[in-house]
């Protein structure tokens, strides 16, 4: 079978939620996305365990608070049974119970999505794009590793936009909404082999790389677990501060910082406005706030703001990288990791132009090779590094150039 014959496999999803309405609402979003199917539903963790052997899904969407067996209890059992199917948390208590959500990540969940407006809410469609993106990212990666022919996440998002436009036109004309195409009918443009890459642009830095005084890191989809992997292995003697933009909603970043602080040899905190930048500290951007560096005579500080989104995000990696490029020039290290889209790519390239050292995550280890791919093609990445080597690479550069 030709890899470009357009014959794709379906991405199969199991939903586990004690609310029948919520199961149906989430199913509607998934089932209406070309190339995705809900193959089974469960009302609690025990029910989910019972159906998994026959269902064999590519990804699980899991509620936390359920009778009989909670989401947390399921994740513990999943770990004990060495079940490798990725899990995305979808729970109404996530915003109020950020600590529980972080516990789920610690237990092996890949990521989370918050239910808007409670467990029974017609507003679930407002997070439809995020549901599709994360299912496509984590489920697609797992499925491809297991030999299935699944498009990349960017392609699912493109198809979702096309489907939305198709439905809008049908509603305006008063005609019947056409059925979604089967996975086998998807365009051959949406390949599932290797993402098409351009040769990287050539950047001539304005100055040679200097002493590294600060490290700036941007990351998105796939980030919660990637950061856990990096920071638990970071050099305990690293002195430079690290500023991190992880795309994450408000209400979670303080708990996320605390969860990282438990496993990291350095001090991890949520950033705050006017917070002094101290050595051997890692600062996580607060949800819904940009972070930037401001130069002060007594020592540089972090500034937060709620200026408009950049590249569809707040916090935005571009905002952080832009300020670091301006203030530190060649005395910085920029790192761009897994994530959809292009946030951070333009301004890490500016960091490189100013003479900063730069690293990007490689395609094989990235859940979504979007942000690092664009940065590489713009010439903003000196070296691509696998996730398993990222902590060592950051630590080695920081030691060599401190």
Automatic annotation (TrEMBL):
One Pfam family linked to the record: Response_reg
UniProt domain Response regulatory: residue ranges: 12-130
Key words, A-Z: Chemotaxis, Cytoplasm, Hydrolase, Phosphoprotein
InterPro entries linked: CheB-like, CheB_C, CheY-like_superfamily, Sig_transdc_resp-reg_Me-estase, Sig_transdc_resp-reg_receiver
Location in or out of the cell: Cytoplasm
Major subcellular site: cytoplasm
Superkingdom field: Bacteria
Post-translational modification as stated in the protein's UniProt record: Phosphorylated by CheA. Phosphorylation of the N-terminal regulatory domain activates the methylesterase activity.
Any one GO cellular component localisation term in the record: cytoplasm
Catalytic residues (UniProt): 220, 247, 343
EC number(s) on file: 3.1.1.61, 3.5.1.44
Keyword Electron transport in record: no
Enzyme type, top EC level: hydrolase
PROSITE patterns: CHEB, RESPONSE_REGULATORY
Domain CheB-type methylesterase: 208-401
SUPFAM superfamilies documented for this protein: CheY-like, Methylesterase CheB, C-terminal domain
Gene3D superfamilies referenced in this protein's UniProt entry, alphabetically: 3.40.50.2300, Methylesterase CheB, C-terminal domain
Catalytic activity: [protein]-L-glutamate 5-O-methyl ester + H2O = L-glutamyl-[protein] + methanol + H(+); L-glutaminyl-[protein] + H2O = L-glutamyl-[protein] + NH4(+)
Keyword RNA-binding set for record: no
PANTHER family listed in its UniProt record: PROTEIN-GLUTAMATE METHYLESTERASE/PROTEIN-GLUTAMINE GLUTAMINASE, PROTEIN-GLUTAMATE METHYLESTERASE_PROTEIN-GLUTAMINE GLUTAMINASE 1
Assigned protein family: Belongs to the CheB family.
Domain notes from UniProt: Contains a C-terminal catalytic domain, and an N-terminal region which modulates catalytic activity.
NCBIfam families, sorted: PRK00742.1
General function of this protein: Involved in chemotaxis. Part of a chemotaxis signal transduction system that modulates chemotaxis in response to various stimuli. Catalyzes the demethylation of specific methylglutamate residues introduced into the chemoreceptors (methyl-accepting chemotaxis proteins or MCP) by CheR. Also mediates the irreversible deamidation of specific glutamine residues to glutamic acid.
Protein name from the UniProt record: Protein-glutamate methylesterase/protein-glutamine glutaminase
Organism listed in the record: Treponema porcinum
Name of the gene encoding the protein in the UniProt record: cheB
């Amino acid at each position: 079978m030709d890899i470009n014959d357009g014959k794709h496999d379906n991405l199969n999803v199991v939903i586990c939620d004690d609310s029948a309405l919520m199961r149906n609402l989430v199913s509607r979003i998934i089932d209406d996305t070309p190339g995705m199917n809900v193959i089974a539903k469960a009302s609690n963790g025990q029910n989910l365990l019972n159906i998994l052997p026959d269902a064999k899904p590519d990804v699980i969407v899991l509620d936390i608070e359920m009778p009989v067996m909670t989401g947390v209890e399921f994740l513990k059992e999943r770990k004990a049974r060495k079940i490798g199917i990725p899990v995305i948390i979808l729970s109404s208590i996530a915003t109020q119970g950020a600590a529980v959500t972080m516990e789920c990540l610690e237990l092996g969940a890949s990521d989370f999505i918050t239910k808007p407006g409670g467990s029974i809410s017609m507003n679930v469609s407002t997070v439809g794009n995020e549901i599709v993106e994360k299912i496509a990212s984590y489920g697609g990666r797992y499925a491809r590793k297991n030999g299935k022919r699944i498009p990349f996440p960017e392609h699912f998002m493109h198809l979702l936009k096309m489907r939305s436009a198709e439905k809008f036109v049908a509603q305006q004309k008063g005609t019947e909404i056409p059925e979604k195409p089967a996975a086998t009918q998807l365009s051959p443009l949406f390949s599932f082999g290797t993402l098409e890459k351009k040769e990287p642009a050539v950047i001539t830095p304005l100055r040679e790389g200097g002493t590294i005084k600060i490290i700036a890191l941007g990351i998105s989809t796939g980030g919660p677990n990637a950061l856990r992997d990096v920071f638990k292995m970071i050099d305990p003697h690293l002195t430079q501060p690290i500023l991190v933009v992880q795309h994450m909603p408000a209400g979670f970043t303080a708990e996320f910082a605390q969860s990282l602080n438990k496993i990291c040899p350095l001090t991890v905190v949520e950033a705050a406005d006017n917070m002094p930048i101290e050595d051997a500290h890692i600062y996580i951007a607060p949800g819904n706030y940009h972070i930037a560096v401001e130069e002060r005579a007594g020592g540089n500080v972090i500034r937060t703001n709620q200026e408009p989104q950049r590249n569809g995000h707040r916090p935005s990696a571009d905002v952080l990288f832009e300020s670091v490029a301006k203030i530190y020039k060649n005395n910085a290290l920029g790192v761009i990791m897994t994530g959809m889209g292009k946030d951070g790519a333009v301004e890490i390239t500016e960091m490189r132009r100013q003479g900063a050292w730069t690293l990007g995550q490689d395609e094989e280890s990235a859940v979504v090779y979007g942000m690092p791919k664009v940065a590489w093609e713009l010439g903003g990445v000196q070296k691509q590094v696998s996730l398993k080597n990222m902590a060592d690479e950051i630590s080695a550069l920081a030691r060599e150039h401190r």
